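Students often ask why we bother encoding 3D structure as a string. The short answer is that it lets us treat folding as translation between two languages. Here is a chain of 98 residues written in the first language.
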Amino acid sequence: MNDITVEELKSLLPKTKIIDIRDKYQFNLGHIPTAINIPMNFIMTNPENYLEKNEIYYICCEYGSRSKHVSEFLVKKGYNCINILGGYNEYNLLSHKK
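And here it is in the second language, the structure alphabet:
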């Protein structure tokens, strides 16, 4: 399973498929641009309803621990997933640095 830092991810925006696995409430408070919200329980229960095995997905949560777990699970199922280290919190911190 692969990881990517927020700094590395920023250089790939907006061409990446980012999936934010947080609850809709958290997602609505703020998210990485271009991210779509598929809550963790949905994507783990029925990944075939949301993902294609020939695409690369970047998985995000608040701090990076849930997304690591979900990414590992999806990779074992045959999907191409990369965990975003530090999650949305890290993205938000770096976006506000001056």
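Translate back mentally: The mean pLDDT is 93. Keep this in mind for the problem set.
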